[in-house]
Amino acid sequence: MQSSVKQQLLEAFSKADGEFVSGQALAEILGCSRTAIWKHIESLRQEGFELEAVRKKGYRILTKPDKVTENEILIGLQTEWLGKEILALDSTPSTQKEAHRLAQEPFKEGTIVIAEEQTAGRGRMTRAWHSPKYTGIWMSVLLRPSLPPYKAPQFTLITAVAIVEAIMEVTGLQPEIKWPNDILLNGKKITGILTELQADADQIHSIIIGIGINVNQKEFPDELKEIATSLAIEKGEAVSRSQLVQEILKKLEGYYEEYMKEGFANIKKCWEKYALSIGKKITARTVTGTLHGKALGITEEGVLKLLDEEGTIHDIYSADIEI
Ligand code: BTN
């Protein structure tokens, strides 16, 4: 099926919101015969959509396949611009790498790159990011804010707030943020965020937010077992990845627009509400050494303030935190 035809068909079902759409109405929307509609419906079934057909009523979608293809994301996506342009891949070394390539060309703000599997997923500090097929959300979001590069760390925090709220909305679970970029459930990591830039000294050209979420893994390799978990393990049932992507994009668009209009103050408050480490004794391992003390909070720029035992306050720009 041509992708534009499929998109129109899925949009019609999306508007119907679970109700039946008659074959005649679909034929009019698509400008084709009812026999052609029947063939299109069959090819949606081949892709894993479950559709009900009732005489005199028409068709309705019962369930969508849990894939993160362009259509699964677009149908029901409630954003104005974020995620309207999607590069969905079955397998790629890293969505981050693909997004950097796209950022070299003129791209539409809010373009996303998403993959079912990454074969060389990257985390912070050149660590590997385990990204097995069909189980997680491996996605990079391209933005082009007109801002100086020192503002970039705020995007990690904005994204973390959007993801926490999206997870709460979709699963009812209550994740916590560990500065700067980890989201945890019951002390184990479910999400990592990797914010990267293409910029010159004064101006961001593009910002690429890499999001990795463990959604439906049932188990982890030995080296990750103690530190990582998935939403499905914590909730005890599978979670729809496309629904979660849609919710993240909706929240992220809202917070991004708020940030560009009104600044960081309100988002900082939300971040602090979900943050695990604030007010607690922490150990911060930075590239220059290890610090122990109390996490006081974050600055407007997203820098962590740590009060050590001698009463000195340190600004921490990047570190691994232990609580
Ligand atoms: C971290 O916690 O170290 C950050 C992990 C970021 C992983 C995501 S998955 C999608 C995107 N593509 C990558 O290769 N990395 C990011």
CATH architecture of the largest domain: 2-Layer Sandwich
Shape: elongated
Main sheet characteristics: 7 strands, mixed
Q: Taking all residues together, what is the mean pLDDT?
A: 93
Low-confidence stretches: none
User: Which compounds are bound in this model?
Assistant: biotin
The structure class reads: alpha+beta
Oligomer: single chain
The strand line-up of the biggest sheet is: 3-4-5-9-8-7-6
Strand segment count:
14
What share of residues is helical?
25-40%
The CATH class of the largest domain, by name, is Alpha Beta
| CATH topology heading of the largest domain | BirA Bifunctional Protein, domain 2
How large is the share of residues in beta strands? Answer: 25-35%
| Number of structural units classed as domains | 3
Count of separate DSSP helical elements: 10
Distance between the termini: 53 Å
Radius of gyration: 22 Å
**SSE pattern:** HHHEEHEHEEHEEEEHHHHEEEEE
The CATH superfamily of the largest domain appears as Bira Bifunctional Protein, Domain 2
Characterization of the model:
- A 7-stranded mixed β-sheet has the order 3-4-5-9-8-7-6, sandwiched between helices.
- The mean pLDDT is 93.
- The protein has helices at residues 3-16, 23-30, 34-46, 70-74, 95-103, 152-171, 222-225, 231-235, 241-262, 265-274, and strands at residues 50-54, 58-63, 86-89, 112-115, 136-143, 176-178, 182-185, 188-199, 204-214, 281-286, 289-298, 304-307, 313-316, 320-322.
- The chain has 10 helices and 14 strands.
- It folds into 3 domains: 3-63, Winged helix-like DNA-binding domain superfamily/Winged helix DNA-binding domain (Arc Repressor Mutant, subunit A), CATH 1.10.10; 70-274, BirA Bifunctional Protein, domain 2 (2-Layer Sandwich), CATH 3.30.930.10; 281-322, SH3 type barrels (Roll).
- By secondary structure, it is of the alpha+beta class.
- The structure holds biotin.
- Biotin binds at residues 94-96, 118, 121-124, 127, 129, 131, 138-140, 181-182, 192-194, 210-212.
